[in-house]
Amino acid sequence: MNSFLQLEELTKLQKLLRDESTAFLHLVRKVTQNFSNEQHFSVCSVLTIMLRDDLLTREERIVALFILLHLSPLGPELTNDEQEQEQEQNQNKKNPQSSPVVLPPFLPVLLNIAQNNQKFNETQFEALFVTIGLKDPNSDLFKLRPNQIGVNNIERLKKYFPESSKLNLQAIFTKFSQIESKIPLVNKMGIGCSISDPEKGKESKKNVEDFIQYQLNNDEFKPSFVRPSPSILQILDNELIWIDYEDETLLPIWDQTITNVQPNNDQFKNLMKKAFTSQLSQLEQQQIILRLENEPKLLEESGITPNNFQGLVEKNPIISFEILKRFSEDEEKINIYLESFIKTNVTLHSMEVINKLSGARKKLNKDFLNRFVSNCISSCGEISDKYVQGRHVRLVCAFIRSLMNNSQLDVKNMFSELQRFCVKFSRIREASNLFRLIKNQMK
After folding, report:
1. Per-residue pLDDT averaged across 36-45, rounded?
2. Which residues form the signal peptide (predicted)?
3. pTM across the whole model
4. Is there a contact between 335 and 300 (Cβ–Cβ < 8 Å)?
């Protein structure tokens, strides 16, 4: 018997699980309409897997539990008291042709869920729901629709299950184990009745039982893979010398390069991808810089573009400076990346990168530098907080002073703008000192 459903049958089962507009008892009719008696085991198997692997929503779990309750109900052999069981045993002795006891195979799943009444709210709700279903399959609770009971509304469930009608789960577990222990091991394993006797000519019952027990204990019920044994090649005389070789004139040649670890380009790409969005550790930054120094062509595989370059500047300014330094030989390419500084807001890291680049490069593009300094000056006036504004002004003054010391900034072309900036923030000592330095250079 196949314990799994086809795709079309799984779709039907999913629709039933998501049906919140039908009362629980009416769902029973839909289950019997969509699935035959032979498919009930398959339905329960799939539902058990879904419940175990947490593949259902809370509402769907309640519907799945109800279907399991309907298809795996408690039989009288598990709910009768000792006196009723004794009467039933006496009746079976008088009528040996009566039907054997059949245990619902998925009942332990429901009993385990019913025992989780001391855990957090969600499992406690499911435990109470299952307990009600085991105690009274025709409870008024099941006349409601799934969306009416309210998931995790334990107080509402308790109305349908008074404290006086508690179910003795431990007693049911004990009875289940007692009945299960009487079932032969062969039946529990689902082994067929017909087997081949391992020893021909000895067809005794004991031999057959011993053979089955041996296979059960050694887990030998597996498909046998029939394959031809490999053929043995003919052994030649000149091959025998290698069995015991003693010629010391021929020494092995060692491959010295086998221990050389080749750089992993994927690791470099992953580090660069990470550098655009988060700050790297000092060790990771050194790894990238070292790889770029040894293999400059890796820059083409780094995934860097003018659009994502500013993210690298803000998160890892040291790496962005190293990349710009390697673009210095290509005037057109470095101007494209420098243009990205003009299109974004001025920050401490952007000024830090340009400042380092001005010290490492002979001459920066004058037009770019004038526009970037103008953006730095304008950014000071856009800050409303006096403390933050003062701090930013000091950084801009230090940045302009460094450009002047590196002979990068043409003060004559920007004198008017620099003068207005220094006068506007003359209350800040760094701005006053910068103004005196500018006047001295203009003389």
Report:
1. 85
2. none
3. 0.41
4. no
Structure confidence by residue, pLDDT tens digits, 105-125: 777 787 777 776 544 455 677
Same domain, yes or no: 296 and 442: no
Q: Among 189, 206, 223, which residue terminates a domain?
A: 189
Q: How far apart are CA 310 and CA 350, in angstroms?
A: 8
Any residues with CB less than 8 A from the CB of 285 and at least 6 apart, and which?
Answer: 316, 318, 319
Say whether both 107 and 136 belong to one domain.
yes
Q: Which domain holds residue 292?
A: 262-362
In terms of domains, do 331 and 312 share one? yes
Q: Residue 355 corresponds to which tokens in the numbers above?
A: 């400042």
286 shares a domain with 392: no
10 Å CB burial of residue 17 (0-12, 13-18, 19+) is: buried
**What does the pLDDT look like over 183-235, one tens digit per residue?**
665 555 554 444 444 455 455 555 656 655 555 555 444 455 556 667 777 87
Q: Do 71 and 121 reside in the same domain of the chain?
A: yes
Query: Across residues 236-254, what is the average pLDDT?
Result: 73
Say if 355 falls within a structural domain.
Answer: yes
- Alpha-carbon distance of 435 to 443, in angstroms, equals 13
Per the CB < 8 A criterion, the answer to whether 112 and 172 are in contact is no
Residues 328-347 as b/e (b if ≥16 CB within 10 A, e otherwise) read eeeeeebeebbebbeeeebb
Say yes or no: 34 and 165 in one domain: yes
* Total number of domains in the chain: 3
Q: How many CB atoms lie within 10 A of CB 199?
A: 11
The DSSP code sequence of 243-272 is TS---TTS-PPP-GGGGPPPP-HHHHHHHH
Q: Which of 347, 362, 377 is the last residue of a domain?
A: 362
129/170 same-domain check: yes
* CA 394 to each of CA 45, 345, 383, 401, 404: distance values in angstroms, whole numbers, following the listed order: 72, 17, 13, 10, 15
Q: Give yes or no for a contact between 130 and 69, defined as CB atoms under 8 angstroms apart.
A: yes
pLDDT of amino acid 398: 92
On whether residue 199 sits in a domain, the answer given is: no
- Find tokens 């498919």 and name the residue: 39
Query: Does residue 384 form part of some domain?
Result: yes
**SS3 state at 319:** helix
Query: Which pLDDT does position 219 carry in this prediction?
Result: 47
